[in-house]
Amino acid sequence: MNLSVIVPVFNEAGNVGPFVSLVREVIGQENELIVVDDGSTDGTTDEIDTSKCRVLQHKVNKGKGAAMRSGIGDATGDVIMFIGGDGQDDPREIPDLLAAIEEGADFVIGSRFLLDPDLDLRGGDQQVRFSRDAVRPVNRLGNQVLTIVIRILFGVEATDSQAEFKCIRSDKLRALALQSDRYEIETEMLIKAARDGLKIVEVPVHRYPRKHGSSKLYGIPLGRLKFGWRVIKTLVKGILIWR
Question: For the segment 130-144, what is each residue's pLDDT rounded down to a tens digit?
Answer without folding.
Answer: 888 888 888 898 899
